[in-house]
Amino acid sequence: MPSTQEMIEAGVSTSVPVEGGEVAATPAKESAPASAAPGGTKGLGQGGLLPEAALRKLRAQQQEFARTLGARLSISFRLDFSVTLAGLQTISFQKFVERAGMPLHFTLFRLDPLRGIGLLEIPPPLGLNIVDCLMGGAGKVDNTARALTEIESALLDQVSDVVLGEWCLPWTSVQELKPALAGHEIDVRFLNAISRETLILELSFEVVMGESKERFRLGLPYTSMEPLIRRFAGDDDVKEPSPAAATVAAMRWNPQLDDIAVPLTVTCSGLELTVQSLAGLKVGDHVPVDPEQFTDARIQVNGVTKFAGMLGTSEGRWAVQVTRILEA
Questions:
Q1: Which of 287, 282, 320 is nearest to 301 (CA)?
Q2: Which of 15, 268, 298, 307 has the greatest CB tally within 10 Å of its CB?
Q3: pLDDT (tens digit, 9 = 90+) per residue, 254-310?
Q4: CATH fold of 36-255, please?
């Protein structure tokens, strides 16, 4: 049976439960080595995902963004705003949503031309105070332990546009980013477009607004941000894409499809039993199987046969290697 690396080079890496017959697809690439950090997070510097120099520049950039955003909000609202960087790390999407307060308010957005969906979390206590300012109030709401209404969410989008626009400006030297709001969510159970294992770059900021103090968070797909961060930091190890990769990158793709889970099923044909033998099967019986049958496994994508492969094991788990693509 081929190694995991050989299976990755074949185009698909999958794991197959012993009895279920279904395989769960994983991206055909290897993750960069990461150092462990408290709370299930992955370290960025000190041998982690990013070089120390890149991490220092990223942190300095985000600190400058916080100062600029605070100054702009102070002028816009004629109220003392102070924004400071409170945290910078990578965590799984599962951890990111677990840290959200209740009630919660997520604004989904895209950063064209980057792939993937980003999340801006503005807690309702902060959001309601901001909306009160937008409506001419003092920015101090008594009842903030509730979700935002649709009208309040629409008003808060004006500030979300400002936050994302300011955040994109420092990246202009390496890549022009165009933020676009994609919707809202108040229940993490419906955030199904993002895999729970997706690695997220989490940026948290502390906001002092008058007498209140709250935090908002930005969550961005790390795989999309890492090349941008390295180029921003002047990392010479960032390689230009090959012509083949450039061709793939030029293809039109809907980024909202990136993290949608697609069911795969693996079947092996050729095993036959008489009706009498089948009726007599009981728990513990052994059915002899010709090993050659595992060399022509068929992989179905959502019920449609798309690939042929070999069934075997890899690193102690059942796996299937794609050997050829079947024509429609």
A1: 320
A2: 307
A3: 666 777 777 888 887 767 778 888 888 888 888 877 666 667 788 888 778 888 888
A4: Chemotaxis protein chec (3.40.1550)
| Contact between 239 and 64 (Cβ < 8 Å) | no
Q: What is the pTM of this model?
A: 0.58
Tell me the pLDDT tens digit for each residue of 128-140.
889 988 888 877 7
Give the CATH architecture of domain 4-30+262-325: Roll (2.30)
The Cα-based distances of 133 to 129, 147, 255 in angstroms read: 6, 17, 35
What residue ranges do the domains of the chain occupy?
A: 4-30+262-325, 36-255
Q: What are the backbone angles phi and psi of residue 66, rounded to the nearest 5°?
A: -60, -45
